[in-house]
């Protein structure tokens, strides 16, 4: 078990990615601190799987935009689980907003949910990891730290901020044995609806812009997070790992691996 004895803090445990991450890491021996806006109601099935594996899971509902609340939650959780060894920042809020007529309130909402929570969490957890001179911080980000969405510039800006936060933190916290890396996760099922745009064709027939014609899953993401959380990745720090099956390489009008019945070439 690669995470035996480790305490892993997963933010936004209610999300699709959170529901894939928690059982996978628990199966490797981790004790879990799960931040759940629903108080655990939306992850009851995953919590049952975790308990059946013999792992411990503590569900909390902290506002990670607020440093004082985050600090209190971590102090309380440490009394039951111990100090956090691995932070998986997993927040991923997409709200449509344009540069032309977007509301400031929406911009702030998206930036706070994605970028501010990343900073507040990393600062609070990083201080505790510093005391142990060890730890892993993993930011689950997006390919839209690199590529505009066409529907939510605020989301792209927030993920770009997380990208640089990871790089800055890797240098500063790296002096204390803390590794900081980011995953730029690419298209999964349903992203054509999530990033629906009136001006961009990026997600038109998007599964066939992955060279192999097969979309990734959140279980794939969980496997990479597990690797980064384990000692197997001990020499990775400050890395941006793009996990998109080659989606962003589709800049030219290459023939795609589209089956004939779906409109591809024979």
UniProtKB/TrEMBL annotation:
A Pfam family the protein falls into: adh_short_C2
InterPro entries noted in UniProt: NAD(P)-bd_dom_sf (IPR036291), Sc_DH/Rdtase_CS (IPR020904), SDR_fam (IPR002347)
Molecular-function annotations in GO: oxidoreductase activity, acting on the CH-OH group of donors, NAD or NADP as acceptor
Classification via CDD domains: SDR_c
Record key words, sorted: Oxidoreductase
Keyword Oxidoreductase belongs to the record: yes
Family: Belongs to the short-chain dehydrogenases/reductases (SDR) family.
Protein name from the UniProt record: SDR family oxidoreductase
Highest classification ranks of the organism: Bacteria, Bacillati, Bacillota, Bacilli, Bacillales
């Amino acid at each position: 078990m690669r995470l035996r004895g480790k305490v892993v803090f997963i933010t936004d445990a209610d999300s699709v990615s959170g529901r894939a991450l928690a059982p996978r890491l628990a199966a490797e021996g981790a004790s879990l601190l799960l931040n759940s806006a629903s108080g655990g109601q939306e992850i009851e099935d995953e919590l049952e799987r975790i308990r059946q594996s013999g792992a411990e899971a503590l569900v909390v509902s902290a506002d990670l935009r607020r440093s004082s609340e985050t600090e209190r939650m971590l102090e309380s959780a440490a009394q039951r689980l111990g100090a956090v060894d691995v932070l998986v920042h997993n927040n991923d809020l997409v709200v449509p907003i344009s540069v032309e007529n977007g509301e400031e309130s929406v911009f702030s909402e998206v930036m706070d949910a994605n970028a501010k929570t990343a900073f507040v969490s990393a600062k609070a957890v990083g201080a505790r990891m510093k005391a142990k001179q060890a730890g892993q911080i993993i930011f689950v980000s997006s390919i839209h730290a690199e590529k505009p969405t066409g529907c939510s510039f605020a989301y792209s800006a927030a993920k770009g901020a997380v990208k640089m936060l990871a790089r800055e933190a890797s240098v500063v916290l790296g002096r204390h044995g803390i590794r900081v890396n980011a995953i730029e996760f690419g298209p999964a099922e349903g992203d054509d609806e999530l990033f629906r745009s009136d001006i961009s064709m990026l997600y038109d027939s998007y599964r066939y812009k992955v060279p192999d014609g097969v979309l990734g899953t959140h279980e794939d993401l969980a496997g990479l997070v597990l690797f980064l959380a384990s000692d197997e990745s001990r020499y990775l720090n400050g890395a941006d790992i793009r996990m998109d099956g080659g989606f962003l390489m589709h800049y030219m009008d290459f023939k795609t691996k589209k089956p004939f019945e779906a409109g591809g070439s024979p």
